[in-house]
Amino acid sequence: LGLLNRSYETDAAFDPSGQKTQWERFAHLVTSLNAHASPGTQYKVLYLARHGEAYHNVAQSYYGVDCWECYWSQQQGNGTVTWADAELTPKGVAQVTAANLFWKNALTSTKPPMPQSFYVSPMARCLNTANTTWGDIPGEKGHTFSPTVKELLREPLNACTCGWRHSKSWIHELYPSYVLEQGFSEEDNLWKAGFIVESSTGLLARVKTLLDDVFASDSNTFISFTTHGVVINPLLQIIGHPNPAFNVTAGQIIPVLIKAQENTALENVSATAPPSAAKTCLPCSSGKVT
């Protein structure tokens, strides 16, 4: 979470003796920007976290991209491991445990603001990542960790079974403190076996809807998203990040400051492609496709 070592216009009044950390001074700047923002303008800091390594990540590396996409990704697993709604691997658990230790240390040393709101993808690997990272860190007034589970943060809807989610009841049983957003369906009605439901333009539109929703409904400034690398990159593109292809590796996080201005004009929404059948092939291994 390194910030550039720089001064801010609010430093003189907030930290005249130079005792505050870089993050404390930055947080005060953002709070001041919101306090003096014109109507319809707001600033938020999003902590964009990618889930730890999961079994579909390992399988894709093992089989190779071509063989993975046309055959193995569309299976439930390979008889040894399962990647339908993939769980974290032991390495993934270690990665997010390290993230937990990082935050515990940072909150008392460099002092980045604790997220005021938490949102998480409904995929098992993200639910676990969020819980392991934040579950034992006391939040505001010591409240129980209760992130909101949002479909808009989920894996892209393609033929990979890693993009299918478990039921609402399954999520509630494992994570009873999690808040399932209004309208969250019992079964996964979005993922379709064998089909690419969501095009790249469709994913961009979905991520923009996510941002519009959060900025319109959540008055908090410091917000955590636990999601997927393939969701983070379109988000970076939408907000005009200088490096939208930035590779957030498994279990890592990137903070971004967003200035949003309300736009009441009608927008031209790019047409999204209809669902299409996924490419298939015969069983293959080690990248050999027939």
From TrEMBL:
SMART domains: PGAM
InterPro entries: His_Pase_superF_clade-1, His_PPase_superfam, PGM_Phosphatase
GO molecular function: phosphatase activity
Classification via Pfam families: His_Phos_1
Gene Ontology CC entries for this record: cytoplasm
UniProt xrefs under PANTHER family: BROAD-SPECIFICITY PHOSPHATASE YOR283W-RELATED, HISTIDINE PHOSPHATASE FAMILY PROTEIN-RELATED
Protein name per the record: Histidine phosphatase superfamily
Organism, as annotated: Immersiella caudata
